[in-house]
Amino acid sequence: MFQAPRGTADHLPKEQRYWRYIESKAMDVAARFGFGRIDTPAFEDSNLFIRSVGEGTDIVEKEMYTFDDRGGESITLRPEGTAPVCRAYLEHGMHNLPQPVRMYYFCPVFRYERPQAGRFRQHHQFGVEVLGDADPSVDAEVIEVAWDLMTSLGLTDINLLVNSVGDPQCRPAYVAKLREYYSGHKDKLCADCKERLDRNPLRLLDCKVETDHALGNDAPRSADNLCEDCSEHWNKLLKYLDAMQLPYQIDHRMVRGLDYYTRTVFEVQPVDGGGQSTICGGGRYDGLITELGGRETPGIGFATGLERLALNLKRSEVPVPDEPKPRYLVANVGDDARIAALELSVRLRRAGVGVILGSGTRGLRGQMRQANALEIPFALILGDDEIEKGEVMVRDMESSAQESRPVAEFIDEVTKSHGRGA
């Protein structure tokens, strides 16, 4: 028997209410903040991610799904959403639009990594990107979008964490301090961190191995090693967050996992979860457009995983509305009644009323059981007598009360109360 590949999951109909709930809240928040939707391809030129994410990152070295297509081109399934949006910004000349350009997206992303709770090798993200404005007030607004989404979903036991990782002017000196600090504790580092020490010392701060994590508590802090411009940007951001009354905490060890981040980085985490259960993360990436061949263009954004959001909604027992269900099941017995039932179903559906046609292989009692199993509130019963009289028997499945109604009159009434024009 075939099974879904490891690290992937089927999202069954009974789970869809969480997805639709998250999507509707996300689109509502995006609309209120003036974001427009963008959809990019599921795969891109591999060099897009090598140049943007960074050659020394785990994503590029270990996690990307990369292959040569039949034309010999190296193609990579999208491992994150920001680089494709930036590529589209450049390709379609969006720098000619009023700046900043605000975009949001829903997309699957693909990473060959160890599956975690709410995080699979194929998982799905909602993300926002703002391109074309370097002011820290934009950072504060993007952070507000993330926090507004989390709270509008009904999540309460969450923390908002912020930090600044500097820029290419001040980061090299900070990285040198990190390397010096960790070199003095090299014998305590895990195998991965020993490799990262030379290639990307920032990643040591994000290590989840207990001994390495403890070392990070006394490591040099990026916010204490900022240049004048980055320090001004950081201090203004904190003032804006205070003015907006956002309940942030400064996390000096937060660096995020991608090379393109500059200055502001932030995450939303469950209070009792920690970094491995991060719900949402993002930050500023002012050099990314330049790295992709465009002119200097500041940018900032975030992404959140839909699977992990759904998991947190369940854990927090947030009440999520059920998916809309058909209001009626049209039950019928006999060939003539079957035709009449089809005609009635078509008329109601075209008027915008939800209807299921009772199974033709079942008798009337079996169709009533079908209505109950599907939690449909009313059955419309058609038999020879009803057809002859031009009526339909309307049965309340909860109370078992029923009454006969002229078909035309019933359709008119239901259309007015439950159809598209209701």
Please indicate the percent range of residues in DSSP E strands (runs of 2 or more).
Answer: 15-25%
**In the CATH hierarchy, what is the architecture of the largest domain at level 2?**
2-Layer Sandwich
Strand order of the largest sheet: 1-5-6-11-10-9-7-8
Distance between the termini: 47 Å
Domains, number = 2
Shape: elongated
Largest sheet: 8 strands, mixed
Fill in the CATH topology of the largest domain: BirA Bifunctional Protein, domain 2
Number of helices: 15
- As residue ranges, the low-confidence spans are none
Level of helix content? 25-40%
Secondary structure tally: strands? 16
CATH superfamily of the largest domain: Bira Bifunctional Protein, Domain 2
Give me the secondary-structure category. alpha+beta
CATH class group of the largest domain: Alpha Beta
| Mean of pLDDT | 90
| Estimated radius of gyration | 28 Å
